[in-house]
């Protein structure tokens, strides 16, 4: 009689049991560390520091009040560095005022100046702007051609050196150095088996970024003040470019899918591309370049960037709310409304809770819609509730730290559960009470 096949002791299953496939991202790529500073606030990029979340305003920088208000909103949402466009003399003149407004509001997020075409002139003509910025973003493809390009680039590096500012040398697919591209295309034509044009363009991006970084160093820029980026708008191209770039230098890398798009398209494309690279240990700062809806909230791109990092286990920014997708067992919308309410409430509290309750960003809340997975997920969470599904008893057991603690009933389950979450946060993450002491006069 043939012995039944045992997957636990034979074949590949035996190998898998002996050495399970590891969960989690690959070790972070080793890089130099760059510091972006403002008024005692130091954001470390690379060199083992946590991946940094960045964003960018879409206001007219010449409108100092509107720009300062948007920078504040982005910073409160969790953006650790905010980039602003500096494209005209009027914009450059207002940068110190924007910085002053933010400082008065207690918002010390570093500002990065985004320069194209005329950055060398603006930084030279407006030294207060150069000083108020914490970093300069330079696109070598938009600085002219030939000697004029070299002189303009050198002028920007000189200003950065004089003001002790780091730079991001950002090469873009849509603004490649055409002289370099033409030369590399000619070289490719002489290969025995020429590459596809798209492969040459990807290689050109990488070569341009590294050559300009090396040129900046030759002009006196310390290597620990240089960050590189190679932006493209296609996910597969981004993955290929950054894999190549990461293997050819040790500068910190800024990730972003440029012109990602609107809504779910932009979110999915950015997550797919950056998620793969981050999982492989590549990337030191990220930005999700979403096209906002008309009058939409610019802070959405910050939330998405945070959620990418938190989903990969690279960082924690806000408590996680686990909720089931719903099915025929969950005809009621109560669990959907409660999940949305709790998630919105927790994120809204984070600007205060971040300092008041250290570690609260690791909180795990479950809001489940029926008895199938509800109790199990609730037990795995720090605090969870299993709401009644179709045909179930109108009761909602609440689990705290894996134990069924109480049952909620009636018309105010949502409010009562939110109060329980508030109490749990206060008890678990609040500072322990200290005994009161009294003194007497001698």
From TrEMBL:
Converts 2C-methyl-D-erythritol 2,4-cyclodiphosphate (ME-2,4cPP) into 1-hydroxy-2-methyl-2-(E)-butenyl 4-diphosphate. This is 4-hydroxy-3-methylbut-2-en-1-yl diphosphate synthase (flavodoxin). It is an enzyme of class 1 (oxidoreductase). SUPFAM superfamilies: Nitrite and sulphite reductase 4Fe-4S domain-like. It catalyses: (2E)-4-hydroxy-3-methylbut-2-enyl diphosphate + oxidized [flavodoxin] + H2O + 2 H(+) = 2-C-methyl-D-erythritol 2,4-cyclic diphosphate + reduced [flavodoxin]. One of its GO terms (molecular function) is 4 iron, 4 sulfur cluster binding. PANTHER family: 4-HYDROXY-3-METHYLBUT-2-EN-1-YL DIPHOSPHATE SYNTHASE (PTHR30454), 4-HYDROXY-3-METHYLBUT-2-EN-1-YL DIPHOSPHATE SYNTHASE (FERREDOXIN), CHLOROPLASTIC (PTHR30454:SF0). InterPro entries: Dihydropteroate_synth-like_sf, IspG_bac, IspG_bac-typ, IspG_C, IspG_TIM, NO2/SO3_Rdtase_4Fe4S_sf. Pathway: Isoprenoid biosynthesis; isopentenyl diphosphate biosynthesis via DXP pathway; isopentenyl diphosphate from 1-deoxy-D-xylulose 5-phosphate: step 5/6. Keywords: 4Fe-4S, Iron, Iron-sulfur, Isoprene biosynthesis, Metal-binding, Oxidoreductase. Residues 1-29 are annotated as: Disordered. Residues 42-305 form the IspG TIM-barrel domain. Residues 321-422 form the IspG C-terminal domain. HAMAP family: IspG. [4Fe-4S] cluster binds at residues 324, 327, 370, 377. Pfam families: GcpE, GcpE_C.
